[in-house]
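Q: Convert this sequence to structure tokens.
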Amino acid sequence: MSWRLPQILCLSLLPCFYVGAAVDFKHDVKSLLSRLGCNGASCHGKAEGQNGFKLSVFGNDPLGDYQSILKEGRGRRVTLTAPEESLLLRKATGEVGHGGGVRIQTGSRAYKVLAEWIRHGLVYEDQDRPALLALRMEPESKVLPFGGEQPLKVVARYADGREVDVTWQSVFHSNDVGMAKVDQSGQVTIAGSIGQTAVMARFQGKVSVFQAIVPRPGPKVNLPARPVFNFIDKRVDQHLEQLNVHPSGLADEATYLRRVYLDLIGTLPTANETEDFLNNNRPAKRAQLVQDLMARPEFTDYWALKWSDLLRVDRLALGHENAFAYYGWIRDAVSENRPLDKWTRELLTAEGPLSDQPAGFFYKVAAKPGEMAAMTSQIFLGVRITCAECHQHPYDQWTQQDYHGMRGFFEQVKYKKLGPAEALLAEGNPKGKHPRTGKPVFPYALGTVMPEAAPEGDRRRALADWMTRPDNPWFARNLANRLWAHFMGRGLVEPVDDLRATNPPSNPELLDGLATALVESKYDLQAMINLITASRTYQLSSKPNQTNKRDERNYSRALLRRLPAEVLLDAVSQVTGVQEKFHGVPAGSRAIQLWDSQVQHYFLKLFGRPARASVCECERAVGASMAQALHLMNSPQLETKLNHAGGQIAQITAHHKDDASLARELYLTVFNRMPLVGEQERVVQHLGSRRFQRQKAVEDLVWAMMNSVEFIFNH
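A:
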């Protein structure tokens, strides 16, 4: 059904979308409704509509919207004989009461287009109009100062070669309004943050991006020569030079030691380990430390925990035995340093009895093919396609067809009982169809062209082949970005699982370099850890200088990062020497060894342990709360650990009769460094003032130390 009336050529005075084409609904009016916010999720696009008028969200169903405007509301929304009397115009201009307020002005461009569409027959689609191929933002990027402004121009390129200025019909969105704001005329205004950010324009399902580069104001900084440990430093330095920012110096030995322990094994160094490292004068001791830590069992514990969060090892969804088997498979992959592409393929193509193929439990936590597709895309590609199940992605290129194309790879997944056991199978040739149009949709990967038939055999193998190819546009970049975020506290793309053209990396050259290095290492996790930790950028101090004190996104200094719930609890237990007890878990287990996220524990829940209900990194809460602060200051459980007669604090106090020696041991134990002269003097003074309550004085001191930023944060 074309719903097309005879073509009406645009009048010379009418601001048409495309010269020589009829003003139609599918291309012109739908775009206007999007620009004006009418089909947004907070207006007529929400599930129940607004005041009896419902549109599909973001114009996902243009034919349905067309019929709603023409046929509903007793036909009063459009009046062919008197366009100006149409409710569509009178409400939008405020002549008739409208909950959404005034959206257009009488006589404006938008008003003229809507009036012309009504006047000339309510054309649904001009089928002779050339296809829109792409958008281009002008300029594509620019260096702008604080408070600077930049008007943007959006150019549409059509199949017949013509280019049209569609700025006034486009919808604009800033990725970071704290850094750059944009109004719907395309005027960008820079706020007071340095770095790089993006502004998106959307028109008729296509998107384009403008990147603003905001340097630090003030005189140009002449950066002194600094050592370049590897290509990471070179690409970070080039970016910082553009931003007029000087990086901090290297972290001292004690700070580096603590940082790398926490990042690699989620565990504090002991006092003896700290002293040994500080007294070690070998030039390559930092690199050797990384190698030593990756050989420790805690490395496997910690990284298995990280992957278990992402892959949703969930006892409630899988059952106790199955979840434990799934965790065991993940743990083995980390312990063996199995290449990331290899175990991804194993996971995606698992089949047979689940007792032999525990990787197959990946599909049990997402029961439906669409959920499997969305989970796979977000974890392994860093691409969010969930919203495309119902409508065009508002900030990306993905359509409903793209979503159902990915969904088709998992339509064959079934489970079959084999006696008491269960097997995962991929069989049959199920046919998918577009939920709105009813047209067939064959399995195809994101960013590729839909084939004319489904692939033969297990479709998941075709997906795994495409996904792990060296030239895949997302797989290596996504993994590299996730690893970088773990060690640096912030991804080159944020959020880390939202890679898209409209959310570009803060340092594209660096992300490209990391992805290339990952591919060249044959997806070796440990090799990437060596690369990142060997960089000067990773080893920078967290102490700011005058040029980078406002920078938290360009890696000019180390960021303060709150310890994850499990790591913080283990740190408290290690310092006090009193092990935590977990219900239903073998005695002596540490928090980072808990494979079951459902183990009931108030501390872990309070400090943000994820429930593994989703694959989003955001499920792990990293922000601070008043409840957390009060717990650390007042918890009876913490007090019990501190004053435990057999605990480490009591042992240290009894062993060190000299207050200065005791102060030194406490700082090595809690902060993993030597005390400064002034700190040691204050501790000695404190203990001397409470000589008859020495043990209690030590406990109070350690309690205060464990409530400090230095202890709670990785720095």
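The first strand starts at residue 132 and ends at 138.
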